[in-house]
Design the sequence.
């Protein structure tokens, strides 16, 4: 298992403390948003929702879309880039998400949303986006300051859940209560993944030791698709190594064939499985795992914990957070900083 002294030596930014505190983000009270009058009236006439954001700032949108897909009252699209769809208009709710508030792609979409007379809500911890939103009197879902964007995702999820519920854009009720119950559940299970659990049954450490120094390919079905994406991002940013993700059933129609290439020593697959997956999906995943094993790629199977969809999503994401941070430790680095990403942003400026 991972030496606790090595964690203490390398984790200069206290990432494990931040990961363990994430359930509290689901308990945040959004009555203190900078504009406090978002009601059901604001949702009247909304015919589509678009969330524009990049990297960790877009993750909350992925999770809420995954969680509430069957209960959304209108279409919901994610935009990762500089341009909004041409169909955006006065009946569109456009959510501009940038944790720093200075992401150039998000600011570009904000200006386009203005030009297309969309209904705009911003989600940020400050920066230029917050300044513009204040000037234009647009609602701001205020995120807690001082985090890496990927570590403020639960706060963004809570913000979006409150927004959708208050605007009556989702058929499911009491999203706040569901998230608080999930926070309580996560507090009960996080010890088994944390550095405080120094026993040999720490599953997060076990998985990290298998993935460190490898290319990780994360697969998930319809229930855990956004969790697979979060694992990929976390391994990239916390572990500082390559990772990719895909979802069933699409991966079986193309990427699956790529496993024939002889790269067994460099690549490890992880399959995120849910008891809530359909019988057809479970059969597909089991068959895929068996066929991969026949070719020398035995997947790491991760079974989601929790009784509800949101509990399974967030507990699997929390596990990935710990796994990726341990990978960073095994790679001999501080998991928190993302120097290469920050250097690119400065170069572009």
Sequence:
């Amino acid at each position: 298992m991972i030496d606790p002294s090595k964690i203490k030596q390398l984790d200069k930014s206290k990432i494990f403390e931040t990961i363990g505190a994430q359930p509290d983000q689901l308990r945040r009270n959004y009555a203190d948003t900078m504009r406090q009058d978002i009601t059901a009236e604001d949702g009247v006439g909304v015919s589509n929702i678009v969330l524009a954001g990049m990297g960790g700032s877009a993750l909350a949108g992925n999770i809420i879309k995954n969680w509430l897909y069957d209960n959304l009252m209108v279409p919901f699209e994610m935009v990762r880039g500089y341009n909004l769809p041409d169909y955006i208009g006065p009946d569109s709710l456009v959510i501009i998400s940038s944790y720093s508030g200075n992401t150039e792609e998000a600011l570009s979409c904000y200006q386009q949303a203005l030009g297309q007379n969309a209904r705009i809500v911003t989600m940020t911890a400050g920066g230029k986006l917050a300044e513009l939103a204040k000037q234009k009197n647009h609602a701001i879902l205020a995120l807690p300051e001082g985090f890496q964007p990927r570590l403020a995702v639960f706060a963004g999820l809570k913000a979006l859940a409150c927004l959708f519920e208050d605007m009556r854009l989702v058929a499911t009720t009491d999203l706040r209560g569901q998230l608080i119950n999930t926070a309580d559940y996560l507090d009960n299970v996080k010890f088994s993944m944390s550095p405080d659990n120094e026993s040999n049954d720490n599953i997060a450490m076990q998985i990290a030791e298998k993935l460190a120094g490898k290319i990780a390919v994360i697969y998930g079905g319809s229930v855990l698709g956004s969790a697979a994406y979060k694992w990929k991002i976390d391994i990239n940013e916390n572990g500082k190594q390559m990772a990719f993700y895909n979802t069933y059933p699409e991966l079986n129609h193309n990427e699956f064939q790529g496993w024939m290439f002889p790269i067994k020593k460099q690549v490890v697959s992880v399959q995120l499985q849910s008891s809530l997956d359909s019988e057809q999906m479970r059969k597909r995943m089991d068959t895929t795992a068996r066929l991969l094993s026949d070719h020398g790629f035995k997947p790491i199977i991760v079974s989601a914990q929790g009784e509800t969809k949101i509990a399974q999503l967030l507990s699997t994401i929390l596990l990935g957070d710990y796994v990726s941070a341990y990978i960073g430790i095994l790679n001999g680095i501080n998991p928190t900083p993302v120097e290469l990403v920050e250097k690119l942003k400065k170069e572009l400026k």
User: Anything to note?
Assistant: Strands lie at 48-52, 76-79, 92-98, 119-124, 139-142, 215-220, 243-247, 267-273, 300-303. The chain has two domains: 4-9+190-330, 33-170.
